[in-house]
Amino acid sequence: MNLGRVVGRVVSTHKDRDLSGIKLILVRPLGTGEVSTGAPPFVAADAVGAGAGELVIYVRGREAAHAFLPDHVPADAGIVGIVDESFVDPEAGAAK
Q1: Residues 7, 27: contact at Cβ < 8 Å?
Q2: Measured between alpha carbons, how far is 12 from 10 in angstroms, rounded to an integer?
């Protein structure tokens, strides 16, 4: 699982019929401390109702479609959670 921030939405009038009713959003990947990784935003299928600016948990690959089971959604990125709060321990990973 990874962290990202919702930065936009995608509107598509012509798409695979299995994507009907699925909200598509743009997500910017984040690294430690909610800092942008520099990677470009990507499109993800939203399984949880995330909104603009929210911090989200996303998965990529085959697991992205699992949040929509038993429906078969052709997705390689999916939002599976909305983060209420996060904390990074400044001591974690420090050399001793």
Answers
A1: yes
A2: 6
Q: Per-residue pLDDT tens for 29-47?
A: 998 888 888 899 999 999 9
Q: Which structural domains are found in the chain, ordered by start?
A: 1-52 (2.40.50.220)
pLDDT classification of 96: cutoffs 50, 70, 90: very low
Quickly count: other Cβ atoms within 10 Å of residue 85's Cβ. Answer: 5
Say whether pTM exceeds 0.90: no
- Amino acid identity of 19? L
Tokens of 40: 């470009």
Residue 33, φ and ψ in degrees, nearest 5: 75, 20
79, 25 Cβ separation under 8 angstroms: yes
Residue 37 token pair? 């990784």
Sign, Cα dihedral of 31, 37, 43, 49:
positive
